[in-house]
Specification:
single chain, alpha+beta, 9 helices, 4 strands
């Protein structure tokens, strides 16, 4: 069924990873997987640009249907294959609204973490703008307790919106993995998030999209002081 699907993706891209999780959860694992090299700028190749003129990944095609934004791809997969695999969006309107809210909220984590990471990565340590760094550390430090509280409402063994794995989890787990790779002291600071991450990161769909280069290279300690 998924042999007419093609996904262009890049290793370490959190948006790509969330799509890969949804594909596996929807039992669509035999899609055509096209790994592009960011180092070689393959996302700007003619092959990708024909599908996504922005030259970005994920770039997704299903038959004649092209969808490129990761959250749109996830919603497309859930709506097109609603009765197959894991139901990632509940039927109840209020619960559906909660899932979609958390799904979209995860971008706040990535926006705040990446702002700090890229400043430190692209600038020599002696040139770090300590005012900017302090501002971004504060922003991320204020963001994560919200998620700690969301999880604490449901108790041990729950997912981010309750008892079921949903689109929100498909987006949250890669974001947490990114934080962990940047050495965020999650276990010490956010025990509910840490417990959730340890449990859900072992899920087959999450493991299937784990960035290949992460397995062979260390991360950075850019978030150790958050």
């Amino acid at each position: 069924m998924s042999s007419d699907m093609t996904l262009y993706w890049g290793s370490g891209s959190i948006p790509c990873w969330r799509v890969m999780i949804c594909l596996v959860e929807k039992e669509l694992s035999d899609y055509n997987s096209k790994l592009v090299s960011f180092e070689k700028k393959e996302q700007k190749s003619d092959e990708v640009m024909k599908i996504n003129p922005r030259g970005q990944v994920p770039a997704f095609k299903h038959g004649d249907v092209v969808v490129n934004e990761s959250m749109a791809i996830c919603l497309y997969l859930e709506n097109t294959f609603k009765n197959q695999g894991t139901q990632l969006l509940p039927d109840d309107p209020s619960q559906q609204a909660l899932v979609l809210q958390r799904f979209m909220e995860t971008q706040n984590i990535m926006d705040k973490a990446k702002a700090l990471f890229f400043h430190r990565f692209r600038t020599k340590q002696e040139d770090w703008d300590q005012g900017y760094v302090g501002e971004k550390i504060k922003a991320l430090a204020e963001e994560l307790p919200l998620w700690e509280n969301y999880l604490s409402q449901y108790g041990e063994g729950s997912f981010i919106t309750g008892k079921d794995f949903t689109l929100a989890d498909a987006s949250l787990v890669p974001a947490l993995a990114y934080l962990m790779r940047m050495k965020l002291p999650m276990k010490e600071r956010f025990p509910c998030l840490a417990s959730y991450y340890e449990r859900v990161s072992d899920r087959p769909s999450v493991q299937s999209g784990w960035p290949p280069h992460w397995k062979d290279t260390p991360g950075y300690d850019y978030l150790k002081d958050v």
